[in-house]
Amino acid sequence: MQDLPEGLSRADHHFQITDNYLTGTRLRLRKVRDPKTNKWVVKFTQKFALNPTDLSRTMITNIYLNAIEAETLAIFEANEIRKNRYRFEFQDREFSVDMFLGDLFGLVLAEVSFETDEELDNFPPPPFAVADVTNNEIFTGGRLSELNFEEIRAEIEKSGLLSRFASKSDANEIIRETGERHE
Prior knowledge:
Blueprint: E1 14-22, E2 27-34, E3 39-51, E4 54-65, H1 67-73, E5 78-90, E6 93-100, E7 108-112, H2 117-121, H3 141-144, H4 149-159, H5 168-178
Antiparallel strand pairs: 1-2, 1-5, 2-3, 3-4, 5-6, 6-7
């Protein structure tokens, strides 16, 4: 995505998420803060694709932690991702739209869940999506935690993810605009 979808702004309600991916594992420590209430939730999560060639179907196991448990796990070496997560309703589906911060500032991803394989297989990409990265391993959280925006930009250019745009200059403009810093 180039930015938040039309109808959604940075001032809208969102959750602040910090993910720490434990090096060399499929595990993460996720801290979620609601800025409205200043309430925190901490989860220890394992997330992986059952079939490594189909990243659209994942297994997720969450363990909710108290402060002492979270502090105990925080000692492990980890790569951090920070993002703001917005809820967005489109065509009777709720999307999670993540606007990344820090080293990944400029990256905006959206995801949606499905009850059945048939729903997933028949879902057309929404008009606000620039590219479908569902089965691109570089856009998984564990992999993103190892990269910065410039490295992702290079991967986008190399992989032709923006090939649906009429010209290379259109694709370059999207990459350039997405990477702008808004202070």
